[in-house]
Amino acid sequence: MMIESLKYMPQPTQSNTALAEHFTDLAPALTARQAAIESSRCLYCYDAPCTRICPSEIDVASFIRNIHDENINGAAAGILKQNILGGSCARVCPTEILCEDACVRNHDAEGQPVKIGLLQRYAIDNMTIQGHPFQRAPSTGKKIAVVGAGPAGLSCAHRLAMLGNDVVVFEAKEKSGGLNEYGIAKYKLTDDFAQKEVDFLLGIGGIEIRHGQTLGGNLQLKDLHAQYDAVFLGLGLGASRQLGLTGEDAPGLLAAVDYIAALRQADDLSTLPLPARAIVIGAGNTAIDMAVQIQRLGAEEVTLVYRRGFEAMSATEHEQHIAKENQVRMRTWAQPQQVLLDDAGRVRGMRFEKTAIVNGRLAGTGESFDIAADAIFKAIGQSLDDSGISDPLASMLKREGDKIHVDAQFRTVLPGIYAGGDCVAPGQDLTVQAVQHGKLAAHAIHQDIQSKLEAA
Amino acid sequence: MADLSINFCGIKSPNPFWLASAPPTDKAYNVVRAFEAGWGGVVWKTLGEDPAAVNVSSRYSAHYGKNREVLGFNNIELITDRSLEINLREITQVKKDWPDRAIIVSLMLPCEEKLWADILPLVEATGADGIELNFGCPHGMPERGMGAAVGQVPEYVEMVTRWCKTHSKLPVIVKLTPNITDVRAPARAAKNGGADAVSLINTINSITHLDLDRMVAYPVVGNASTHGGYCGSAVKPIALNMVAEIARDPATKGLPISGIGGIGNWRDAAEFIALGCGSVQVCTAAMLHGFRIVEEMKDGLSRWMDEKGYKNISEFSGKAVPNTTDWKYLDMNYQVIAQINQDDCIKCGRCYVACEDTSHQSIAQLIDAAGVRTYEVIKEECVGCNLCEITCPVQGCITMVPQQTGKPYMNWTQDPRNPRAEAVAAAIPAAPELVQG
Fold this sequence. Notes:
The complex is a heterodimer. Chain A is an alpha/beta fold.
């Protein structure tokens, strides 16, 4: 892990127990009474806009009506039928730009959408379904390889298993869950929820997960292609984008996702390296997650720097609000110009150039300023890790931008090889969308195999 | 300020709000609290012959709305479970302490004239302003030949009413049961027996809900339940209709009516009064919120009357009665059409699915290139049923707009589409004159 490069830094002064208090649920679960009141607010719209906007097509009005009618298991089954990771999506979905934005009660006259995310969480957290809620169809005798045990791969594996197929999931990391396990801010997905959810998902049976399997390393696409009836690639975006500046490798400069992963995996938060002053570069939700978490660990000064204005940030207003509430300084209209190093070659700050829109394009103004910092975290986006798709067969995958090209059925250009989640274009890089990709790809895989059988 | 005081068949009270005969008027302690809170009168919880009734546990249950608001209330309590002597003593004292408030004593006895002849002088001696005959209690007491068992037989109603008028000088109010096919029959019987007024409705036979684990209805007593009497907001529409039936029945026209049934605020009260009531009685709303609600009821009614220019209750009492008529006198040429205010519409689609699935397919769902939904009324198809307006969650977004048909008033007796039009027109009197509010 890159976080090794911060080893020379001090550690948080608070104890692990005290620090853990800062990473409890950002949006606490609803009580039964709150759920009853909130569910009664749903108007049970027809052709409901919340459902239309849900990337995983959850019938929102229906599950909320079930909650209100005290049919919690029915509500949970309705959610999980469309989205087997409904529990984590309830926690990490940017509902403020999806269902809750679309809610008719978000109309100007009221401006109080139904708390759909919290209600979804209530249903999943409080269901009492014995065993797994879904049964597998009779065995097809087919075996499918899924690469990546993130939301897309897990969703695909689950649906394939449900349709009667056997699945082997190949995962490079020690744990399954992908970004739910390694990438989401700790206070959004607390406890060991990601692992519990994976265990629940595997409850359907027919899915084997093999860890330490790296595509392009000890795993070759051509082998999977030869040995399995189909392959689904849910690779995610493993590479962090570079600033392209000298000093990018200096101790003290690293990718935000690496620090967040270490934070999520730490058994003892007080052993994490903690810069007194930190800079976060970027304007997405990862940048906000990084800035807020380092602040909560005890950093004295955290500055988030973005080259454009607030309105252009991809972090939602809700996320920006969280940052402000956590005393994160936000500096807009400035771009990194130079990594400032001390005599030992470690980060001591960063020089930024002010920016402006000139003739419709973003440009440096020539005016610069320095921000002193002990660490710089890059959160300027992720891209496909090329090393994973460089074997002879994988390199034949058609690309679209820096992602993998797929058709509407999530087929790549290579027969029998499908892909979904963040690694394909187009996409919003949302967990909920990855789940949907995996689900739809599973249906496409199953149907393609079955229709081939019928044709034969 | 409007004058809220009333003189109801000789019973005077500073405002038309009385507490109905029920648990809130069971004893002096409650009644004194009610008078302190400002109630104009009470109907003391029903007295009977000694020994006093014995009650069970539990006694109440409710029908809930979406957010646990009580829509309807059910009880299996009997008449007073305290001795006649204690009740009479307390009534005497309270009336002495609160001379300006109305105290009416509710009574229920078996159908034997002597029993009535014996108790009436005792009631009169308390100084009470009147009596109310409980011919309505639908649970427990009818099994013993009292309450609704009397109210359901017009001959008994008339007989007992006459006994009371014979043996007492007090005004007699006959409380009617709604658990009957035509409420006009017992009302006529009461009038024939000499009743000074009727009050209605008593509670409706009901089972609110069940414990599906124990397979027993609420309220549970041991392992069983029994039907109770239903009251509260849910029964108001039934009560209003029955009040109107009596108010517009030529046989009982002008008979004072004390309105009961789901009255919880000033508007409910105004509606009962407009349909012919001279006083209103409240129970469930007080049981759910306490006696303090009378404050808002008086204030609201008084301000509304000022706004409308009504100086006292009698100025608008019965004012909606002439506008309550038989179906056959409704104007066949009247036409309203739904209009959706697009600025207020939140695009929930409820009007659309309601009309499309269950009515006249008169609302179109338009989807533009961006996926934005617009709901528009198809005027040619709209019959003006009000369903879309009812299902719309935004008050005032959908309005029913009267159309200029250019056609004169024509009721069903005059309608050429009525195959029996001429016969009907000949057999019935001309349509009553409607009064504009």
